[in-house]
Design goal:
single chain, 678 residues, globular, nine-stranded parallel β-sheet, alpha/beta, 17 helices, seven-stranded mixed β-sheet, Immunoglobulin-like, TIM Barrel
Length: 678
């Protein structure tokens, strides 16, 4: 199906923002139901000390609000609303539908989710039941309506928070309700069974369907299940979850149309939902992000996640709804953040477009699965380094108030399409090393180290505002998206594409003729054979670079050869090419470059489009712009002090900067420049 038209501004967002303070939002999840009233009083006093102005309430409180079906108890939440409002703290009120009560699990067993291998899951944890269950949707709408009716007029309410992290831990359910809904989804998508049979290629292995009720969810089978069926079930599952969100959102809007509605994404870390589609249904984009603690480059992955979140928001301000003050509790080794890391992480999200910085959670839990997850207020209390850093961050955000509503502008975009990732990750691909995430991280990391700001874009989106578009991994590319890339290049853009891209259409069917079928004319070449390499095997290139993992047997038509293979299965054949098309150009890289080789290539391509950059490992530089001047964040992730050329006022210290700002090891400086006269 064609992708809805997207510009660089998200079409479906309402433009609503939270009423109240003109400052940056600061706070986190608050779960007071775990604590007696006297602790609430202490907590709110501490929140004020830290400069907190927004807390999220009720995310997992369904059973406390509705202890029995149709019976409601809001007394505790009423009191908390009034206490927080009296303290000047606003509320992001959640619908608690990510944690159905025990009575629901008992009364509606058919709503329990079923795994692909047929296991019916029980309650006692967090997470959704079957998203296609009519009982669940009705119950979710009922508790949502009760909350919306009750708190619609409360002055502390500034934001609605629907559900929690859709797609985690349940994304696909193979229960009977889902199977029935899947068939209806297919009828809407294809119209007729002959059209479905053609799209799925069902003559292969004799899978043709003669009745709609012959179609099941793509459960485990003796061999590989029809891959287009698998792909469609992922699309259906994302849509089913989105229907749940819209059901609650529309219930809320009947009572509070002036209050924005969000749900917390997990931008690069949840591939079970299509966030490009979802982003058009929320008023404000919000995101949860947690570092992979053991990775030394996790600050780069943080930046990548923030850049994708900003891109989902169409460049508009967004909210960091959750991150951690220290260690999480669910990784193999839950490594605590070092001194200063809490602030660096927060300010990196801020630099990349967030106007709200929130944590999970305010007070650490005494019991349950997350009792070892860090919090703003640790178990050890307010005498800790963690709490001091929380208070210091609140003060810093107060100094940075002028940046609110400013925006980040990028000249380079990386293409990101979760449907392509879904398709590429299915079974029986040419090599186990075709890892789309690895390639995206590799390209992004080089650009980060060169202080090149990146947007992410869908391949069907408007791309004309970018000097350079990079496709590190784009296996699935529908005809409309392929035509869009051709238009971009013809119009003067530069496209840089890596291997195993443009291979199949939106039905996961190989394009007729040689690869890359969707892009042969754009790239000026054809690929006669894929030549995946053995583990630990490498190939040398004529320009001194080397590649691993993959090679192609390339025949050029209009492309010029930039580098050839010196050895390996494609020896003598082109390895890197560049094609002129219209007033633009398209580069193709047919092997997995890494390290200095990828660094040098990207440097060459950046120079060709007029973007000058130099490698500055460990120093993060991002600029937010507004009519009132530029705000340049310089974040030092190294153990050595650094100087950065700048002019203006440093906002955290008030110092005047005339040529160079000193950024101490591990710290951040934010320089406000003066607008240049036209």
């Amino acid at each position: 199906m064609p992708f809805d038209s997207l510009s660089r501004v998200a079409k479906g967002q309402s433009g609503l923002w939270m009423r109240g303070t003109t400052g940056l939002r600061y706070g986190g999840d608050y779960n007071p139901e775990q604590w007696p009233l006297e602790v609430w009083v202490d907590d709110i006093a501490l929140m004020k000390d830290a400069g907190i102005n927004l807390v999220s309430l009720g995310i997992f409180s369904w059973v406390l609000l509705e202890p029995r079906e149709g019976e409601y108890d809001f007394a505790w939440l009423d009191k908390l609303f009034d206490m927080l409002h009296a303290a000047g703290i606003d509320i992001d009120l959640a619908t608690p539908t990510a944690a159905p009560p025990a009575w629901f699990w008992k009364k509606y067993p058919a709503a329990r989710p079923v795994t692909r291998d047929g296991v019916r899951l029980a309650g006692g944890s967090r997470g959704l039941v079957s998203p296609s269950s009519p009982e669940y949707r009705r119950a979710a709408a009922n508790i949502t309506e009760q909350l919306a009716r009750r708190y619609a007029g409360h002055p502390a309410l500034v934001l609605w928070h629907v559900h929690n992290e859709y797609g985690a831990p349940i994304s696909e359910s193979y229960d009977d309700y889902s199977v029935a809904a899947f068939r209806l989804w297919l009828q809407k998508r294809y119209g007729t069974l002959p059209a479905l049979n053609e799209a799925w290629g069902t003559p292969f292995w004799g899978q043709c369907y003669g009745e709609w009720d012959e179609i099941d969810a793509p459960r485990l089978s003796a061999s590989v299940t029809n891959q287009t069926q698998r792909l469609d079930f992922k699309r259906f599952s994302s849509d089913a979850l989105l229907e749940c969100f819209i059901n609650e959102r529309d219930t809320i809007r009947r009572f509070t149309p002036e209050i924005p509605v969000t749900t917390n994404f997990m931008a690069t870390n949840c591939l079970s939902v299509d966030y490009w589609k979802w982003s058009r249904e929320v008023d404000i984009i919000s995101n949860d992000h947690y570092l992979v603690a053991e990775r030394a480059d996790n600050h780069i992955l943080l930046a990548m996640d923030a850049d994708l979140t900003r891109s989902l928001a169409g460049g508009s301000p967004w909210i960091l709804m959750e991150h951690s003050t220290g260690a999480v509790n669910w990784q193999p080794r839950n490594i605590a953040k070092r001194a200063g890391e809490l602030a660096r992480n927060s300010l990196s999200h801020l630099a990349r477009g967030a106007d709200g910085i929130l944590f999970f959670q305010f007070r650490a839990s005494r019991y349950g699965a997350e009792k070892f997850h860090s919090a703003m207020l640790p178990h050890a209390g307010a005498g800790t380094r963690a709490w001091r850093e929380v208070v210091e961050l609140g003060a810093t955000l107060g100094c940075l108030e002028p940046i609110r509503t400013s925006r980040v502008h990028a000249r380079v975009a990386i293409l990101w399409d979760v449907e392509s990732f879904w398709a590429q990750d299915l079974e029986w691909r040419p090599s186990v090393e075709l890892d789309h995430r690895e390639r995206i991280e590799a390209f992004y990391s080089v650009l980060w180290n060169r202080s090149v700001t990146i947007d992410f874009a869908h391949p069907a989106a408007e791309l004309g505002g970018y000097d350079l578009v990079i496709a590190p991994s784009l296996y699935l590319l529908g005809p409309a998206s392929a035509a869009n890339l051709a238009t971009y290049v013809n119009g003067g853009g530069t496209l840089l594409m890596s291997y195993f891209s443009g291979i199949v259409d939106e039905q996961d069917a190989v394009y007729p003729g040689a690869a890359p079928g969707a892009l042969r004319d754009v790239l000026g070449l054809s690929i006669h054979e894929f030549l995946p390499l053995r583990d630990h095997e490498s190939v040398s290139l004529s320009d001194g670079r080397f590649g691993t993992g993959w090679a192609d047997d390339i025949q050029v038509s209009t492309a010029e050869v930039v580098a050839r293979y010196v050895d390996g299965p494609a020896a003598g054949s082109p390895a890197i090419t560049r094609n002129t098309l219209g007033s633009g150009s398209a580069w193709y890289v047919s092997t997995r470059l890494a390290g200095a080789g990828l660094e040098a290539l990207l440097g060459e391509v950046l120079t060709s489009v007029g973007i000058e950059s130099t490698s500055t490992p460990g120093i993060e530089v991002v600029t937010r712009t507004s009519d009132h001047g530029d705000f340049t964040f310089v974040i030092n992730h190294t153990d050595i002090d650094a100087d950065y050329t700048a002019f203006g006022i440093e906002l955290t210290t008030g110092d005047t900067i005339s040529g160079s700002v000193l950024v101490p090891a591990g710290l951040t400086r934010v320089v406000r420049g003066v607008p240049t006269e036209a």
